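lol so apparently i was supposed to do this last week
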Amino acid sequence: MTMTSDRRIRVLCIVGARPNFMKIAPLMRAFGERAGRVDARLVHTGQHYDEAMKDAFFRQLKIPEPDIDLGVGSGSHAQQTAEIMRRFEPVVDELEPAIVLVVGDVNSTIACALVAAKKGVAVVHVEAGLRSWDRQMPEEINRVLTDQISDLLFTTEPDGGKNLTREGIAADAVHFVGNVMIDTLLANRERAVPAATTLAGIDGFAHDARGYGLITMHRPSNVDDPVVLRRLVGTLTDLSNQLPMVFPIHPRTRARIADAGLDDALDASRIALTEPLGYLDLLGLMAEAKVVLTDSGGLQEETTALGVPCITLRENTERPITVTQGTNTVVGTDPAKIRACLDDTLATGGKAGRVPELWDGRAAQRIADILIAWADSQVEAA
Ligand code: UD1
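anyway here it is w/ uridine-diphosphate-N-acetylglucosamine bound
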């Protein structure tokens, strides 16, 4: 590992898709506070590029503008992954980083990790070790492969470390540090846009004294198969008679709903569709919701941190601590199970949970300190 001429560690921090932005924000801040030791550069692959999917997050979370934007845009998994690799390689050649740091499990994560590993650049993975054990899920492939080629791995929950040990990763490369996404949540909780403000901006949305539910859904397993999508939309439409719902809609879901001819059904329901929301807007809505129904990984963790009941519309979760300790219930897509869980949540106020260990707002600080000590040890060993 080589340092810059002034003994700083050059770290290329990678972001690509929406869930990466809230994870990188506290890391950039922690590295900025250690600028005497870390020369952090931000690379955006361009996987997400819309105002609502990217710019709003940079603005609200005060993430510095990327030093480099690879501008890859959308495509099939192979096209997107290959294009990121093709465009990232010359950046590594030019900037000669000591470390490439990747977060999460999106295509940008594996693509940049793979380029770095092949060039002998150390790979650091933040949010390592999560496993859904479902290889149909594109993110699961990205997680397993990224962890295998990482040199330093940071986990959010103790199960992550156990999974990595089982896969042959050396224990001294793994550090349980907590959750950078929760760092962002805690840092921004007071700045969240009040739900009433957001709801007032939604045309014709009437929520009653019972409050409202929040829906998000974009996983290919839920929205790409028209049969599953139709069933889910039918169930949610039906449940909205009981509790009105707000559904900020991801571009891929919007397209699939239109393809499946489901727009009219939603129009006639008590589900209000909105464009994808900014971080502070969604945080406010989530914090005050009666219940969140989602297939997102991030929302499972955020609801646990907020103490809001979460019904996960998937058959599995890679974040089991949100179930064992938090407010999450994994119900799948069976209408009867979703309905039973919603009924129970409304009747009882939902699952009470506690906030997992080290989800305390200081994960990025721990990561920065461990990364510096580790880089120094690598230089000494060389
Ligand atoms: C990606 C991640 C997923 C993450 C999700 C959050 C992978 C494999 N998946 O899925 O883990 O939960 O981001 O959003 O990396 N699109 C736009 N504007 C944009 C970006 C995308 O309209 O700014 C549309 C395009 O039609 C695109 C589609 O959304 O084809 C899907 O985008 P893509 O990045 O391929 O995957 P996501 O479904 O967003």
